[in-house]
Amino acid sequence: MSLRDLPKLELHLHLEGAAPPSLIRGMAKEKSVDISRVFCEDGSYDFRDFVHFLSVYEAATSVLKSPEDYARLMTAVLEESASHGVIYTEFFVSPDFCGGSDVTAWREYLHAMEEAATRAEAQLGIASRGIVTCIRHFGPDKAKPTALCAAETAGGWITGFGMGGDESVGHQGDYAYSFDMAREAGLRLTTHAGEWGGPTSVREALDDLKVERLGHGVQVIQDLALVDRLIEEDIVLEVCPGSNIVLGVYPKWDRHPIQALRERGVKVTVSTDDPPFFHTTMTREYEQLARVFGWRASDFHEISQTALDAAFCDADTKARLADKLKDHPQ
Ligand SMILES: [Zn+2]
């Protein structure tokens, strides 16, 4: 079995966080911007810890300044994902970085990204959708125009709304206004919770934002009653084990709770989060899960089926993706 060839669905991928360092370096050179401090000598991204990671991420992202830049980024990321067998990707996209959450500017960025995504689907067979994401450490007031961008462009390629950023800032409920606006526009909801924050952050996400998926969510393992609630309410976790290991949420792969959560009956999926930052790919995640937890083709198939069921896309797209999963021999 070639793990690279297995068809994969990825639900948790930050578009800028997936930017190949070579693309960002090349763009910085074209624009004569000096961001050499964000790179190691070997050319990869350089950061010390989670807060430093966020600042390196924002510095790297600062070279992406136009809709055309985002189209190039989208193309590069989808090519990379398709080369690892990914057949469907959901991107976190941030109007904050695309025109400062101005709806008119956002429409132009979105148009360029959507065109690139459509081209990639035609040429490489990889489908995708966008989840507009507010940045938690920018504060609740900044989230409102972001949610308006999401609501104004809901439908089509944009099918979800979410929140990323520094989970230690404020509470999930501080952003309820924005999540309510997105829900009323018909968008599906997810938020980062239970990555750095404990069970309380997960409980707040469910109670105050009424999300159907959680970004990470793994810290829920500390509270088994809450684990049972996730199962009862059919909440799906977007688990990114490699990200958790590199950032130090867990010290080693064999200490990661993905297997324990799955064994208790929680619906888990597998994603890379910000792959070049964490020196990972979907293939690498699969290899580690096979090595550490003994996952086989049938386990990966089950994970893909869970991701398909939880995907924020329409029924026709799901039917096409289901055919691709079925076609692949187990
Ligand atoms: Zn994330």
From TrEMBL:
Coiled-coil intervals: none
CDD domains tied to this protein: ADA
UniProt xrefs under InterPro entries: A_deaminase_dom, Ado/ade_deaminase, Metal_Hydrolase
Pfam name, any one: A_deaminase
Entry keywords, A to Z: Hydrolase, Metal-binding, Zinc
All residue ranges annotated as the Adenosine deaminase domain in the record: 7-327
Alphabetized GO MF terms: deaminase activity; hydrolase activity, acting on carbon-nitrogen (but not peptide) bonds, in cyclic amidines; metal ion binding
Entry keyword Zinc: yes
Cofactor requirements of the protein: Zn(2+)
Keyword Metal-binding listed: yes
Protein family per UniProt: Belongs to the metallo-dependent hydrolases superfamily. Adenosine and AMP deaminases family.
Protein name as catalogued: Adenosine deaminase
Species this protein is from: Pseudooceanicola nitratireducens
